[in-house]
Specification:
Oligomer: heterodimer
Order of helices and strands of chain B: EEEEEEEEEEE
Distance between the termini of chain A: 37 Å
Structural class of chain B: mainly beta
Radius of gyration of chain B: 13 Å
Order of helices and strands of chain A: EEEEEEEEEEE
Largest sheet of chain B: 6 strands, mixed
Strand content of chain B: over 45%
Distance between the termini of chain B: 41 Å
Largest interface: A-B, 27 and 27 residues
Number of helices of chain A: 0
Number of strands of chain A: 11
Radius of gyration of chain A: 13 Å
Shape of chain B: globular
Shape of chain A: globular
Structural class of chain A: mainly beta
Number of helices of chain B: 0
Chain lengths: 114, 113
C-alpha cells in the first residue's frame, strides 16, 4: 500500500514569490494534516482536515497561507507571498480517524526561501 | 496549556547498550502517546504508541512506559544498533484530544559501532 505522497520534495524560491505543495494521503484516510517542521524542532500543526472540512486551522498564518482539500482526498498548501522565515520542511500526514489514531507522515517538502 | 517536554536533546550510546528518552506532558486528559523516528531527509515514522489504559507496551527491542499520575512517558530501546541512529520525537494530543499532536523537541540518538 502506498504511503502519504508529497510533491515536490524540494523547492527553492525567492522571497515574495508564491509556492504550492501537494499531498496525496493514504487511501481511505479521512483526516489530513499539514505540519511545519523548522530545523532542529518537532513538527507543528498548521491545519487539520476532516474530509473536505478544515476543522483546526488556528495555527495557519492566514494572511499568506491557504489550503484546500477538494473532494476530501488530495490537498494543496499555498504560501503567497513567501518570506525568508517560511523556510522549513512542510509535512503532510493522514489518519483513519480524527481522535488519537495513528498518523502517517509523508517525506515532506523542504522549502528554502532566498 | 499544551506542552510536551522531551529529554535529552542528544544521546550517544555504544552499540548493544540501552537508550532511554523521556517526555512529560501538561494536559492530564491526554490518552494517546506515539513515538516517531525520523531519519535524515525523511518524514517521521511511527514506531510505537501507547494508550492511557496500559502502563507499558513492548515491541521487540522497543518499549514505552507511561506514568499518568506523573504525566510522563518514556521510550526504551535495548540492544541498540547503528541503524537506530536517528531523531526520535514523542507526542501527545492537543487539548481535548482533538486529533492534533503536540511534538516534543526531539532527541538525536547516535549509536556508535
Amino acid at each position: 500500500e502506498a504511503g502519504v505522497v508529497q510533491s515536490p520534495r524540494y523547492k527553492i524560491i525567492e522571497k515574495k514569490q508564491p509556492v504550492a505543495f501537494w499531498c496525496n494521503p493514504i487511501s481511505g484516510h479521512n483526516t489530513l494534516y499539514w505540519y511545519r517542521q523548522n530545523l532542529g524542532q518537532g513538527p507543528e500543526l498548521l491545519i487539520r482536515y476532516e474530509n473536505e472540512e478544515a476543522v483546526d486551522d488556528s495555527q495557519l498564518p492566514k494572511d499568506r497561507f491557504s489550503a484546500e482539500r477538494l473532494k476530501g482526498v488530495d490537498s494543496t498548501l499555498k504560501i503567497q507571498p513567501a518570506e525568508l522565515g517560511d523556510s522549513a520542511v512542510y509535512l503532510c500526514a493522514s489518519s483513519l480517524g480524527n481522535k488519537n489514531t495513528e498518523a502517517f507522515f509523508g517525506q515532506g517538502t523542504r522549502l528554502t526561501v532566498v | 496549556g499544551e506542552n510536551v517536554e522531551q529529554h535529552p536533546s542528544t544521546l550517544s550510546v555504544q552499540e548493544g547498550d540501552s537508550a532511554v528518552i523521556k517526555c512529560t506532558y501538561s494536559d492530564s486528559a491526554s490518552n494517546y502517546f506515539p513515538w516517531y523516528k525520523q531519519e535524515l531527509g525523511k518524514g517521521p515514522q511511527l514506531i510505537i504508541d501507547i494508550r492511557s489504559n496500559v502502563g507499558e507496551k513492548k515491541d521487540q527491542r522497543i518499549a514505552v512506559t507511561l506514568n499518568k499520575t506523573a504525566k510522563h512517558f518514556s521510550l526504551h530501546i535495548t540492544e541498540t544498533q547503528p541503524e537506530d541512529s536517528a531523531v526520535y520525537f514523542c507526542a501527545a494530543p492537543g487539548s481535548s484530544n482533538t486529533g492534533k499532536l503536540i511534538f516534543g523537541q526531539g532527541t538525536t540518538l547516535q549509536v556508535k559501532p
